[in-house]
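COURSE: Structural Biology Practicum
ASSIGNMENT: Worksheet 4, Part C
STUDENT ID: 0417
INSTRUCTIONS: Below are two proteins. For each, the amino acid sequence is given first, followed by its structure token string. Answer the questions at the end about the second protein only.

PROTEIN I
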Amino acid sequence: MKYAILITGSGGQGVLSSGMSIASSVSGLAHSTYVPWYGAAQRGGVARCSVVVSDEPILSPLPGLYNAIVAMNDSACQKALSELRHGGLIVRNSNRCTSRISADAILLDVPADDMAKEAGDRRMANMVLTGALLGMVGVIPLEDVEELMLSKMAAKNPALGEMNRKALEAGYAWGEDPDHIVELEEKEVTDSKYSLERTTVGELLDTPELRAVVERIVPQILEHPLIEAGRMFRIADALPYIKDMITDEQLNEFRTALESL
């Protein structure tokens, strides 16, 4: 079992602490990695972190495509959609995320701001969303995250720890309820011959129709110094090494073109 989670939002929304809570809580039971992107997080810019949990050693902490996205605001959610696997899970704060999503995915809308306020403080919305993810997926026991969180806060601020616990449990209960799943208008999904998840870099380089797509949409990746060495990689697994070379719009266009062949 390997499960990759992308948590995304803005600085000050608790993105990084949510990721750290998940990754640290499973360290004694399974393998986990945690990779934060700070950017201009302290000034309200984009904040993201990648968490991978697995029952086997993790070869790369950056999976390329994720099983789940936890989004704390609308802008962050829309930008992250291209990094979600087909059939993946989107957990978003419905108090801040209102844009329509058309995707092959499961959507769990959570009124995290409202639920956090009921738990004691609206700033606990990140814990509500974390709990909703755990309740929906069931990969990590709620008790493990609670124990870690409360142990860290016991000495310096037990009252804050209790509010976090309430927020986490409220989110967990929300995520467990199947009635809270929002039906999406799915894109037409076909059994395409090629995809980011199945096609290798070697196929991309050697198959004329695939190489033509690369040359038309993302020709710059052909200049990567390690592209020949990465022939055995699936495109999805190679994405972390070329993310700085392509835009989200190019990735979406490339993915659509690949799957239409």
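PROTEIN II
(use this one for the questions)
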Amino acid sequence: MLKIFNEFLTVYIDPKGAEVREVINNENELNYMWEGNEEIWSGVSPVLFPVVGKCNNDEIKFDSKVYSFTNHGFARFSVFDSHKRSNSEIELSLTGDMLVENSFPMDFEFYVTYKLKKRKLITTYSIYNPMIKSLFFSVGAHPAFKCPFDSEHSLEDYFLEFEVEEEMLSHELTGNGTYTGKTTSYETKNKKINLATPGFDKTFVFSDFKSKYVTLTEKDTEKKISVSLEGFKYLAFWKKLAGNFICIEPWCGKGDDVDFYGDFKDKKDLIKLETKKEFVVSYEIEFDYQ
């Protein structure tokens, strides 16, 4: 397990998937992240690349060839190289030549950087196209935060608060995780979504939000965790009733519509990166409670 730290936080990262597994408060050894219980959900903060969400038939088609693809892509199952920059910063990398042969039709260089700044963990995704043709991909985050924060509270004691009042688009999902293509308007109340809201025990995917961040807040104490959203088109929330966590997921891209069986290049919301170009996006998590 890899480690970065500063005065306030210590972060443990698994080279498999470049996945943050723990974020520890140095003062009291509190772990802010979900425990990754395999009986419920073994993930903690998977990195989503080169797709976000589900592909129909668990495959993609590219120039008439078919490639098997699991939900959220192969990065979360791949072992990254690591290059520690300092005690508080580390870069992990995955390149096309590190994959099983013929598992993806394009070459790439994918870098994930984690950096601590006071009580913030800053994650940066950088994708470089070394090819003479275009690179197509999606990228996203899937951090799961422990919620309730302690044994004295329940789910009813928490809400998600946006920076501003929102009237977002909610994207309807099918039972298997693809999209129907239908959207509805979703309005916050006093900028908030209560986690105990009926029906909020599944995946919600939003777009067209205006806020630069969203905050998970405990009602009576104002303890909170904030996640920045700038640079990401989609925002997903996911939780399982059996698990004490909530996922706050900024995405560049989303899964297939239920009727899409075309070439990968024609998939909605993919990023098209031209030859020798780089795409960079980052987000911050601020852990504002002890």
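ANSWER KEY EXCERPT:
Q1: The two ends are 24 Å apart (CA to CA).
Q2: The mean pLDDT is 95.
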